[in-house]
Write a structure and sequence with these properties.
- The chain is α+β, with helices and mostly antiparallel strands and about 80 residues long.
- The protein has a single domain, classed as Roll (Nuclear Transport Factor 2, Chain: A), CATH 3.10.450.
- A 4-stranded antiparallel beta sheet has the order 1-2-3-4, covered by helices on one side.
- Strand 2 and strand 3 form a beta hairpin.
- The radius of gyration is 12 Å and the shape is globular.
- The two termini are about 25 Å apart.
Length: about 80
């Protein structure tokens, strides 16, 4: 599932690039955009009160590659709208 792949594949990429160690990493909501693969825009809870928005690319299945973190926005709240970025 995308949730499982996100935790194992995307969480370490995000932690490394954001300089954070997330005890919580729970997807709250996501949107997709179909490209040559799928772009996921995901709101993720990273602590009790902190959220981040992730842009994650998942290539086509025949390419057999895991999800790749494209970019992210930190300092979000649960109520911030998830938008394409």
């Amino acid at each position: 599932s995308m949730c499982g792949r996100m935790k194992t594949g995307v969480k370490p990429q995000f932690e490394s690039r954001a300089g954070m160690n997330c005890g919580v990493f729970t997807a709250i909501v996501y949107k997709t955009q179909v490209v040559a693969g799928t772009m996921y825009f995901i709101k993720v809870q990273v602590s009790n009160s902190e959220y981040v928005h992730l842009k994650v690319f998942q290539s086509l299945p025949h390419e057999n590659l895991g999800p790749s973190l494209v970019s992210f926005e930190t300092g979000k709240t649960r109520d911030d709208p998830l938008t394409y970025f």
